[in-house]
Amino acid sequence: MTIEVRVPTLGESVTEATVATWFKKPGDAVAVDEMLCELETDKVTVEVPSPAAGTLGEIVAAEGETVGVDALLATIAEGAGAAAAPAPAATAAPAAPAPAAGGADSVDVMVPTLGESVTEATVATWFKKVGDTVAQDEMLCELETDKVSVEVPAPAAGVLAEIVAPEGTTVDAAAKLAVISGSAAGVVAAPAAAPAPAAAPAASGAKDVENAPSAQKAMAAAGLSADQVTGTGRDGRVMKEDVQKALAAGITAAAPAQPAAAAPRAPVSADDTAREERVKMTRLRQTIARRLKDAQNTAAILTTYNEVDMTEVMALRKEYKDLFEKKHGVRLGFMSFFTKACIHALREVPEVNAEIDGTDIIYKNYVHMGVAAGTPQGLVVPVIRDADQMSFAEIEKAIGEKGKRARDGKLSMAEMQGGTFTISNGGVYGSLMSSPILNPPQSGILGMHKIQDRPMVINGEIKIRPMMYLALSYDHRIVDGKGAVTFLVRVKEALEDPRRLLMDL
């Protein structure tokens, strides 16, 4: 029996969509509600689940095609046809690399869904090597995309028979990463097949093969050249484990290695080169660099400054922090006060919460607050959606949870999209004053800084007060100076007298 897969209802006033990504290919087995493809409209991204279990037959609408509502996307074969179809597909994948590696027991490890508008990724790290036993859902490797890191779990238990995409390889959204063999033959064959690439380093030494980034870093740290390490990766690539084996074997840096590497950079001395380390930028860092430069090139960025006396906020926090934590199970920090103060100011100056779309201005009647977070991989901005509808406790919980996920590299694409305004806290690193850069397409970003005791004149008397510099960077194309200054003054007033937040003043 053949089941048709059709375009679902796309939403009010949306009549067509573009097929962005197919997660399955003809011949693949699919389960009920398993995601088949992703559609993009001018407003949202829609995932299309499988209406039945079976085998994906024909893909009618290929990636890039525009389809209307209820249009036919693909067909799914049920019953006997479905049971028979996976057999050729399953045996075909391992047949080319190693006929003895498992036959019908072999499972392909594919690139998982990368998220909206992400079409490729780079294989950053393999946690397993060929011949290792893996459990189902055990992490096999980590991929880096333009925005997030994605861990790839094992789809089944067995033995890692082949790594198709080694470290440093750029793969598309439907690529095969590896093959897992679950049969006894696979367990025996995988280690036996491993020496084959190792036997070819001499023959492939003259080839232009890109070594794994982790291996390049390890060789640079040890002062080794690629010629001194025997590569066991695909096509003779040097892997991190190969460098470790070379060091364990007592291989040391050869004298001519450094001058040879420094030859293309004549102005740099050999001594300086020996103390340098060249590491390829991660895709996340490349995207950060590109987006920030685009912001500078596109927006008319200005920054206005003010300072806030944190006495009242600190006193309020000190008085209620124990009760707050006891009731809500989360610590009361400063970020919830600043978030509330910004929401209060955005209501009065809505253009700071707007964005430019061509010749139109889009005013947002909601606040999706971006909270910049520094991670080992780079700066990310998780978004707290509908922050204007949240209480202090809900904001603190959301900030804590998003921050932890950011540091662990677990943020999804959706969690970093759609922000309308951003808060960046450089004060946690000791910054006294800075000019934050816009997070496009947003029109405003608030920079928080270090709280520092300073002498202030209060009612004609000099007193020591905990002061913080605030900086608002804004897009002057949409926000005038008056609006920017008014916004920052309202934030200052709300923090210096938190009762104004309660009274909505």
UniProtKB/TrEMBL annotation:
Residues 258-270 have a biased composition (Low complexity). Its cofactor is (R)-lipoate. It is an enzyme of class 2 (transferase). It catalyses: N(6)-[(R)-dihydrolipoyl]-L-lysyl-[protein] + succinyl-CoA = N(6)-[(R)-S(8)-succinyldihydrolipoyl]-L-lysyl-[protein] + CoA. NCBIfam families: PRK05704.1, sucB. Keywords: Acyltransferase, Lipoyl, Transferase, Tricarboxylic acid cycle. The gene is sucB. GO terms for biological process: L-lysine catabolic process to acetyl-CoA via saccharopine; tricarboxylic acid cycle. This is Dihydrolipoyllysine-residue succinyltransferase component of 2-oxoglutarate dehydrogenase complex. Belongs to the 2-oxoacid dehydrogenase family. Residues 210-247 form the Peripheral subunit-binding (PSBD) domain. Residues 2-77, 106-181 form the Lipoyl-binding domain. It comes from the Bacteria. Forms a 24-polypeptide structural core with octahedral symmetry. Part of the 2-oxoglutarate dehydrogenase (OGDH) complex composed of E1 (2-oxoglutarate dehydrogenase), E2 (dihydrolipoamide succinyltransferase) and E3 (dihydrolipoamide dehydrogenase); the complex contains multiple copies of the three enzymatic components (E1, E2 and E3). One of its GO terms (cellular component) is cytosol. E2 component of the 2-oxoglutarate dehydrogenase (OGDH) complex which catalyzes the second step in the conversion of 2-oxoglutarate to succinyl-CoA and CO(2). Its EC number is 2.3.1.61. Residues 258-277 are annotated as: Disordered. One of its GO terms (molecular function) is dihydrolipoyllysine-residue succinyltransferase activity. Pathway: Amino-acid degradation; L-lysine degradation via saccharopine pathway; glutaryl-CoA from L-lysine: step 6/6.
